[in-house]
Design brief:
Layout (H helix, E strand, L loop, with lengths): L5 E8 L5 E14 L4 E8 L5 E6 L7 E3 L3 E7 L2 E7 L2 H15 L15 H6 L18 H11 L3 H13 L2 H15 L2 H16 L3 H7 L5 H7 L12 H8 L11 H20 L12 H20 L1 H12 L5 H18 L4 H14 L1 H8 L5 H17 L1 H12 L8 H10 L7 H13 L13 H12 L1 H10 L7 H15 L2 H18 L13 H20 L1 H11 L1 H6 L7 H16 L3 H9 L4 H10 L5 H16 L2 H15 L7 H21 L19 H8 L26 H17 L3 E2 L5 E2 L33 H5 L2 E5 L5 E5 L5 H6 L13
Antiparallel strand pairs: 1-2, 1-7, 2-3, 3-4, 5-6, 6-7, 8-9, 10-11
Helix pairs in contact: 3-6, 5-6, 10-11, 13-16, 16-17, 16-19, 17-20, 18-19, 19-24, 21-22, 22-23, 24-27, 27-30, 29-30, 30-32, 31-32
Protein name: Protein phosphatase 4 regulatory subunit 3B
Family: Belongs to the SMEK family.
Pfam family, one: EVH1_PP4R3
Amino acid sequence: MSDTRRRVKVYTLNEDRQWDDRGTGHVSSTYVERLKGMSLLVRAEADGSLLLESKINPNTAYQKQQDTLIVWSEAENYDLALSFQEKAGCDEIWEKICQVQGKDPSVEVTQDLIESEEEHIEEMPETSPLIDLPSCELNKLEEIADLVTSVLSSPIRREKLALALENEGYIKKLLQLFQVCENLENTEGLHHLYEIIRGILFLNKATLFEVMFSDECIMDVVGCLEYDPSLAQPKRHREFLTKTAKFKEVIPITDSELRQKIHQTYRVQYIQDIILPTPSVFEENFLSTLTSFIFFNKVEIVSMLQEDEKFLSEVFAQLTDEATDDDKRCELVNFFKEFCAFSQTLQPQNRDAFFKTLAKLGILPALEIVMGMDDLQVRSAATDIFSYLVEFSPSMVREFVMQEAQQSDDDILLINVVIEQMICDTDPELGGAVQLMGLLRTLIDPENMLATANKTEKSEFLNFFYNHCMHVLTAPLLANTSEDKCEKESFELIKSLIKSFIYPYLLNIYSAFIFCLSDAVVGSTKSNTICPDNYQTAQLLALILELLTFCVEHHTYHIKNYIMNKDLLRRVLVLMNSKHTFLALCALRFMRRIIGLKDEFYNRYITKGNLFEPVINALLDNGTRYNLLNSAVIELFEFIRVEDIKSLIAHIVENFYNALESIEYVQTFKGLKTKYEQEKDRQNQKLNSVPSILRSNRFRRDARALEEDEEMWFNEDEEEEGEAVVPPVEKSKPEDDFPDSYEKFMETKKAKESEDKENLPKRTSAGGFKFTFSHSASAANGANSANSKSVAAQTSPASSNGSSSKNATLTTAVTATKGSLVGLVDYPDDEDDDEEEETSPRKRPRLGS
């Protein structure tokens, strides 16, 4: 046999019949030469010293109790016990013991298989026979209480007392004495009965529970437990159970056995949760059988209800009936909530059958109706039921909503109803919204989507979600990041969107929610954009951003297309101006996930839209404060440096280095400059090694042109999604389309430079520079790619040849014949152009100076 180490506590029974803890260690079963047999060894967890070395004797009675205890006696008055941390460890050691003794591991006492109980007792003189119970009389109650309390420390004696109580029908006699004591107002006797009944519960025997929790006895058991000696006045648990607690039948239950089982389960649960004190560490396993008793009762209740199809059909019919009054519907929803909670006790295969039954009866369409009701309690209960369904089978929910989309409008789709509930949560802490966000996250997680030969759930569902639901999810974000000049129009637009997908009762809530933002941002001088300063709004936007960040990580091209079509990153970065740092960090995290993908499509989108500007603004506005925002921004740039993302490094250094070079407490920005210069040197060396005839533009192809298939994919998005923010770059045109002279080219360049001068950042009253950045698609296009009108403090790094602006800018937009934009490659080492270009790059003011 191989050694198997398991974590255990070793206990020995002392002279006072109390268990002493001898230490914690790891147990193994191995052959010990000195003892000439298989033995149990326990070595201390702390120092490896030997806590126990016990030979497994073929004739010793070992007992397995409560799944994690093994108890035996090695000599008279010397009882040992191993308490295992894990049931698996206990089972394994028990199998070793049974293997040595030649017994079946399914038994709980190793000597009971081949010997009768009487023979077993005769052959074990060191263990006493069944405990003799005192006669059940008033004057013996103290003696009985002492006996019951004393046996709790010994597993073997507990077993014997339980057997004695069962054989003699002792519990019913005790409960008769309770009625006598209560009639006589015998307080001392009632206190003894409390100790007795509590002790009997701690014996942890299901056969005793069957007697105590029967209809005949349970209220008297509760009565005994009212008289706790530590309380000045007895509790009134029976009064609560009989008068206050009301049993509601949403649909009359005709099965008397089912009704009795429901009553019993409720009362036993009440005893466990309310009456009995919280068990100590040593008592925590004493009530494991009580927990199992409740568990199996719940399994039986769910099974009986599930088999009664007439009952469930009637419940569903009333739940979806428009004539059902609100109070009745509330009771029906609460019934289903508790029904689903009970179902969690079922075995996996039974739980599968249970939820399939509910789906067949129409639970999801019913939820769609009740989640749109005014009653907050009903909506909350419906959300809990929905969470059970999503947790059980996200695929089942996804399949339903996709089938529903073929027959219904977007405004009543189940997922859109869920999103609306999240958006319109009235809880200041957004507890319901957080729960719903987690459910949405599960539904759109590709990890739990199925893929078969004939059907790919991931592709189908994500197409559905982005076409029918994403606009609903992002509506609050887009509404709260619009420009001041379009503020009124934006609010009107979002109101019209709300009308199309939110039920009328939610419209007023959402309208108030949207319009409260305008008061929060009046007088803001930080930027030209609305920035939600309302705390609840900020929390909601943070939840939406968390979900969008999840999409960036897991949805590849779907979210990429959505971000570029909606110019979503630009809108998200408006939130960098929020006074709530957690919201600014959420926006930054969204950008960080995008950059973390190291996707050149995203990189081009960021550089052409000049989207580092609000991030650098936030860093400079943060000043010298050493906080999470400061660290997060620096980590973003450090990632770009370490991963050597060349296009982003070039953009940052060329446009923002002068503003960042004063930051010296980290070497990140100097490192970016070094990387930039090293790459420029490599390019120079590479081009210098090429014959001059090959450096002619005539023979060059735009290296950054999109591949044809990728371009086609970006163009095939639906027209209503809007024009792409980053339009496909046209193929390099023939030489005839180029400006026919150098002078014409220079005129175009000078006109552009003069336009840039007019758009230099203006100082705000605070002394910093105020940035503006366009929300139109053209702002992110190639028209502003090299020297964007929104770039603040754009300063090219110093260069010895005086033409670093040209060297740093790899792409120049040139106006073609009909005003279209043609992407050209301006190679930095084109010596002929460098000699002709003599204009030095103009300096721009530093950010935040």
